[in-house]
Amino acid sequence: MLGLPDDWRIGIVPASDTGAVEMALWTMLGARGVDLLAWESFGAGWVTDVVEQLEIADARVLEADYGYLPDLGAVAPDRDLVFTWNGTTSGVRVPHGDWIADDRAGLTFCDATSAAFAMALPWSKLDVTTYSWQKVLGGEAQHGMLILSPRAVERLESYAPPRPLPKIFRLTKSGALNEGVFRGETINTPSMLCVEDALDGLRWAERLGGAPALIARGEANLAAIAAWVANSDWARFLAHDPATRSCTSVCLRIVDPWFTGLDAGRQAATAKAVAELLDTEGVARDINGYRDAPPGLRIWAGATIEKSDVEALLPWLDWAYATVKAAPA
Predict the structure, then answer these.
(1) pLDDT per residue over 270-316, tens digit each?
(2) Which fold has domain 9-203?
(3) How far are the Cα atoms of 39, 52, 73 from residue 110, in angstroms, in the given order?
(4) Beta strand ranges found along 133-174 (DSSP E)
(5) What residues does CATH 3.40.640.10 cover in the chain?
(6) Which CATH class name applies to 210-326?
(7) Which residues, in sequence order, are bridge partners of residue 61?
(8) Residue 166: what pLDDT?
(9) What does the pLDDT look like over 124-179, one tens digit per residue?
(10) Closest Cα to residue 256, out of 247, 267, 246, 264?
(11) pLDDT in tens, 51-94
């Protein structure tokens, strides 16, 4: 359903999507210099892992503030590359893969957790890709998926990292890829109920029309929010460039002069109060912005969400913000 090339491997790893990323970084980084892209908290987390934990000496960090992307044109094709496709805590995604060189010498490591099944991923550009069941398909958390290109397999089989690897991270046996990981064998046995739930999610997606239908549902939800934002006098997208707006993790900033005139603590308290009011009314759960992001709201708009529900939510946002503004904490 993802449209993978026939010679790409895909397997379940005994960890969350975060653990799948860490497995890839620990087993393959260090063969050459690496560029690290960070524009929100999860990308920043991979920077910390690579620089402080793996201690890769030749690591270059390309950063941007929340709401923006780093300079993608600065990425060097002779270096490895680590990035998130979709920044879930900023609502900023890369718009396409044209900036990744076809003739690159380095490997690309892509955390695609909230982009897989929601955005068109250019597999020829992605050598190591991770995602998890709980995002766009709505499955159980703590189950990571790892996708390897032939170039990634070659790296695993030709490069021995200068660090001890826990058993749970090992993807090779006697210098060759452990093919069992990509044939359904697992180091730790996952819950069979969770596996069946994931399969049910895939069957649901197939009934809808596969990955293209899932992508269309998310984009329709984003369009509904965009139409509301265009007429709002207090809310804007955190992503400043429309081409980079996420269709799954939609992040909103508050631009009302009353709000921007508050100090940082009261801004955070106000956004939290809006989210809590919506929760109390049974309208929306957990839509406060991420704790490290600028104060605002974060709306999940992936394929499991009906457009009619998104449209029903939007007037409530206006009501909740007006209510909190009228009686500030």
Answers:
(1) 999 999 999 999 999 999 999 889 999 999 999 999 999 999 999 99
(2) Aspartate Aminotransferase; domain 2 (3.40.640)
(3) 14, 20, 17
(4) 144-148, 172-173
(5) 9-203
(6) alpha beta
(7) 36
(8) 79
(9) 999 999 998 888 998 887 788 899 999 999 999 999 998 888 777 888 888 898 88
(10) 267
(11) 999 999 999 999 999 999 999 999 999 999 999 999 999 999 99
> According to CATH, where is 3.90.1150.10 located in the chain?
210-326
Question: What are the structure tokens assigned to 1, written together?
Answer: 């359903």
Closest by CA to 106, choosing from 58, 66, 43, is 58
Per-residue model confidence (pLDDT) at position 82: 97
268-273: list long-range contacts, CB under 8 Å, 24+ apart.
268/295, 269/329, 270/295, 270/324, 270/325, 270/328, 270/329, 271/295, 271/296, 271/297, 273/324, 273/329
pTM metric for this prediction: 0.94
206-240 CB burial, b ≥16 within 10 A, e <16: eeeeebeebbebbbbbbebbeebbeebebbebbbe
Q: Give the span between the Cα atoms of 64 and 328, in whole angstroms.
A: 32
Instruction: Answer for the pair 137, 304: CB distance below 8 angstroms, yes or no.
Output: yes
